[in-house]
Design a protein that fits this description.
- The protein is mainly α.
- The chain has helices at about 1-10, 20-35, 40-55, 60-70.
């Protein structure tokens, strides 16, 4: 799963239209790392997801609470 998510990160551009996808991918990478015990790497990806999400105009909602829960 991690390889697929990392491949997606390389393919997705960092424009406004892709930000929601980046949030989801970073959050999922964080969950995958957490599941295998890489908690510091997991935290880094969850923080990145949070940073991107807070930068979006629609920064509220269920994804925000999910990210905070994962941190």
């Amino acid at each position: 799963a991690l390889q697929i998510y990392k491949m997606l990160l390389e393919k997705i551009t960092d424009d406004e239209e892709s930000k929601a996808s980046l949030v989801s991918i970073h959050n999922n990478i964080g969950l995958a790392h957490s599941a295998i015990g890489n908690h510091f790497i997991a935290l880094d990806h969850c923080k990145k997801a949070l940073e991107i999400q807070l930068g979006l105009s629609s920064s509220t909602g269920p994804i925000l609470s999910t990210i905070y829960n994962n941190i």
